[in-house]
Automatic annotation (TrEMBL), chain A:
Lineage: Bacteria, Pseudomonadati, Pseudomonadota, Alphaproteobacteria, Geminicoccales
Gene3D superfamilies referenced in this protein's UniProt entry, alphabetically: 3.40.50.2300
One Pfam family cited in the UniProt record for this chain: Peripla_BP_6
Keyword Signal listed: yes
Limits of the Leucine-binding protein domain: 51-390
InterPro entries in the record: Leu-bd, Peripla_BP_I, TAT_signal
Top-rank lineage group of the source organism: Bacteria
Name under which the protein is recorded: ABC transporter substrate-binding protein
SUPFAM superfamilies: Periplasmic binding protein-like I (SSF53822)
TrEMBL record, chain B:
Family of the protein in this entry: Belongs to the binding-protein-dependent transport system permease family. LivHM subfamily.
Membrane topology: Multi-pass membrane protein
Native organism taxonomy: Bacteria, Pseudomonadati, Pseudomonadota, Alphaproteobacteria, Geminicoccales
Organism: Tistrella bauzanensis
Protein name: Branched-chain amino acid ABC transporter permease
Pfam family, one: BPD_transp_2
InterPro entries on file: ABC_transp_permease (IPR001851), BCAA_transport_permease (IPR052157)
Localisation per UniProt entry: Cell membrane
Signal peptide: none
Transmembrane region(s): 12-30, 60-79, 91-117, 137-156, 186-211, 223-247, 253-275
Domain of life: Bacteria
Length: 427, 288
């Protein structure tokens, strides 16, 4: 680049009169060249054994930071393993990670950067549904393959996106009938007031009605609500048999504490699609959490060899890591699915990898066997129900090879590969 | 009837929470005209002080009622001595400085404790009113809020410190001429405000999720309550907390928590439009 700059300035000087305009222009060009230089130099130097870049956009701080830490750790573990085994296509892998700080604006900003400047081969990232919807179009526009590895409300139909987390048909559909059968048919739903909570609450309503139950009320809570006093009174007045909770984040943890402080924990049971996903079980007292039921695609407490190997490796490499939930397990599996696909395709080209994944790619991970479903770009995977006991999850039900039936009902990427919508259930 | 009793308790709890949240801010803002944007983080420090103390085996009542206020009060003194004292009378500068302080404290606590949720168990159980259950801790919060306001009133009205503090706030030059040292009074007042906020943080710890960013959830409500309350620290805090707590809790109960929050803020905007000097600027002028 410096050669380029010399040329420009000499040309200006050679013409005899360096006018203000040509000077400004050449300086601007030179400055532009300098800024772009690292990217261009790296690009030019791209050789056959240069690392393949794996992108990561995960919150490491802020409201959902606790969820993001184990996800990045899982990626780091996966990359270390693959590199130890010789990398992909003979090239090592390298993580390019940005801390999105629970800030949607940073998500879009870093998404552009990771796609355009870093030119990563694939991006794993996004925790909340809001963050996924912010970056999904960016990766569509800049043709960067995107893996969303979080359990969510379902319905994303986009050929550029692979969603490896569980969806309501895999977990809520099991959780609701279990709770109705065990405790009774009248339910009261509490959910966080953004797209995840809103749509998950609809699924809870649907499965409750499908199983002959009755929804007494659905209450939504902004993420900064901390006082649940009036809600607790309202719930008592409604006298439900069970409370379903899709409350999210640190502030909403207050609900479980205030619920227990009022002494209601013994009288009205709680089933949740979000509780225990982060480190609630470690943070709360056993007396506050015992008996709460949840449904996920993975629990740290699973005792299969693959699971104990995974948690053991993470805990050894990263002492003090927070609870290893479905978030970390699915991120690990999403990463390995990409690696397998790249090996199969003998390329890291987006379309070739996508086609390899669509061929029904499978991986045996800590949660069991995970298979990509071509029609929806979601996964067929195991699901589990567990009950909190003495600050640990005790698995009470397992459901092998659950298809993403909710998304499959609305999304068909074989018939409409150009679809990029998120479908929302209507009741 | 049982329901009415439980609901009354909810409303009182809402009011008490607001009083605890905003009194420390009101002392600093009302008396010293410093807009402390690190208020939420003082609260967070108080909560962490209780968590750490309880984890190291100290009785939870001592942790909440003594350690949290003393610790945050000391932090307040250090903060006042290091940079707030250079910024008196410079409203915007003090806002920027305390905002920076709030970012610093969040970063510091995240570095030390990580951004995982901490907590301490609630020390009291529930009790029954007819068919309903409520928490004894709710009642405890109401009592503490009342004692806090009463204690502050006694301190300001009945002690020599209160007299000197009030005199300094009204006319620092005159007070200085009488042999009072305004910088010392400012320092003590800032420390007092911080200590009250620390107490509120400690009391919140058993019923909230304690994490470094928890202050953000409380700061908007604390500010709007103090602004609506006006210049009088005690009457302003009490009346504004009473109104807002009542509106928020009853609207949340009658509609949804979302509408409850909206109601609170719409009401606050209208109130501040009608009473730009705050409630106490109009109705309780000259009160404490």
């Amino acid at each position: 680049m410096s050669k380029n700059r010399t040329d420009l300035t000499t040309r200006g000087a050679a013409s005899g009169s360096v006018t203000r305009r040509t000077f400004l222009r050449s300086t601007a060009l030179a400055a532009g060249g300098l800024i772009a230089a690292p990217a261009i130099m790296r690009h030019a130097a791209l050789g056959s054994d240069d690392p393949i870049l794996i992108g990561s956009l995960h919150d490491q701080s802020g409201a959902v930071g606790t969820s993001g830490v184990p996800m990045v750790r899982a990626l780091e573990l996966g990359i270390e393993e693959v590199n130890a085994a010789g990398g992909v296509l003979g090239r090592p892998l390298k993580l390019v990670h940005y801390d999105t700080q629970s800030n949607i604006q940073l998500y879009t900003q870093y998404a552009q950067q990771i796609a355009l400047k870093d030119k990563v081969a694939v991006v794993h990232g996004g925790i909340t549904s809001a963050s996924r919807e912010a970056i999904r179009p960016v990766f569509g526009r800049y043709k960067t393959l995107y893996f969303y590895n979080t359990l969510y409300e379902g319905g994303v139909c986009d050929r550029n996106v692979f969603s490896t987390g569980t969806t309501p048909a895999q977990t809520v559909e099991k959780l609701v009938p279990y709770a109705l059968e065990r405790w009774g048919k009248k339910v009261y739903i509490l959910a966080a007031d953004y797209n995840y909570g809103q749509i998950t609450a609809k699924w809870m309503e649907k499965y409750t009605k499908d199983n002959g139950g009755e929804v007494l009320s659905v209450d939504f809570f902004p993420l900064d609500v901390t006082n649940f006093g009036s809600t607790i009174s309202k719930i008592q007045q409604a006298k439900p048999d069970v409370v379903f909770s899709a409350l999210v984040g640190g502030n909403h943890t207050a609900f479980y504490r205030q619920w227990a402080a009022a002494g209601l924990k013994g009288s009205i049971p709680i089933a949740s699609t979000t509780f225990g996903l982060v480190n609630e079980l470690a943070a709360l007292e056993a007396s506050e959490s015992d008996g709460i039921i949840s449904g996920y695609g993975y629990y740290e407490e699973l005792t299969t060899p693959a699971s104990t190997k995974f948690t053991g490796a993470l805990k050894e490499k990263f002492p003090g890591i927070p609870y290893i939930s479905e978030l970390a397990a699915c991120t690990y599996e999403g990463f390995h699915l990409w690696v397998e696909a790249a090996k199969k395709a003998q390329s890291i080209d987006r379309m070739k990898v996508t086609e390899a994944l669509e061929s029904g790619m499978s991986f045996d991970g800590p949660t069991g066997t995970v298979t990509i479903d071509h029609k929806t770009h979601h996964t067929v995977r195991n699901a589990f129900l567990a009950e909190a006991k003495e600050k640990l999850w005790s698995v009470v039900g397992s459901y092998p090879d659950q298809p993403p039936a909710d998304t499959a009902a609305v999304c068909d990427l074989i018939a409409n590969p150009r679809d990029t919508k998120q479908y929302v259930i209507s009741l | 009837m049982d329901l009415a009793a439980v609901l009354t308790l909810d409303v009182l709890n809402g009011i008490a929470s607001l009083i605890l949240l905003c009194t420390g801010l009101a002392v600093i803002f009302g008396m010293m005209k410093i807009i402390n944007l690190a208020h939420g983080e003082f609260l967070m420090l108080g909560a962490y002080a209780t968590v750490v103390a309880v984890d190291s085996g100290i009785n939870i009542w001592i942790a909440m009622l003594v350690i949290s206020p003393v610790f945050v009060g000391l932090v307040g003194l250090v903060v006042e001595r290091t940079f707030i004292r250079l910024l008196y009378g410079r409203l915007v500068d003090s806002m920027l400085a305390t905002w920076g302080l709030s970012l610093f404290l969040v970063g510091l606590i995240t570095t030390i404790f990580g951004n995982t949720i901490k907590s301490v168990p609630s020390p009291l159980g529930g009790f029954t009113i007819g068919a309903y259950r409520s928490s004894q801790y709710t009642v405890f919060l109401v009592v503490v809020a009342a004692l806090l306001l009463g204690g502050l009133w006694l301190l300001m009205r009945r002690t020599r410190f209160g007299l000197i503090a009030r005199a300094t706030m009204q006319n620092p030059d005159m007070a200085a001429a009488m042999g009072v040292s305004p910088p010392k009074v400012y320092m003590a007042t800032f420390g007092l405000g911080a200590a009250i906020t620390g107490l509120a943080g400690g009391l919140l710890a058993p019923v909230a999720g304690v994490l470094p960013t928890m202050g953000a959830a409380y700061i908007a409500k604390a500010f709007i309550t103090v602004v609506a309350g006006g210049a009088s620290v005690i009457t302003g805090s009490a009346t504004a907390s009473g109104l807002f707590g009542f509106i928020n809790q009853s609207a949340s109960y009658l509609t949804t928590p979302v509408i409850g929050e909206v109601f609170l803020f719409v009401f606050a905007i209208v109130l501040i439009r009608l009473l730009p000097q705050g409630i106490s600027g109009r109705f309780f002028r000259g009160s404490l």
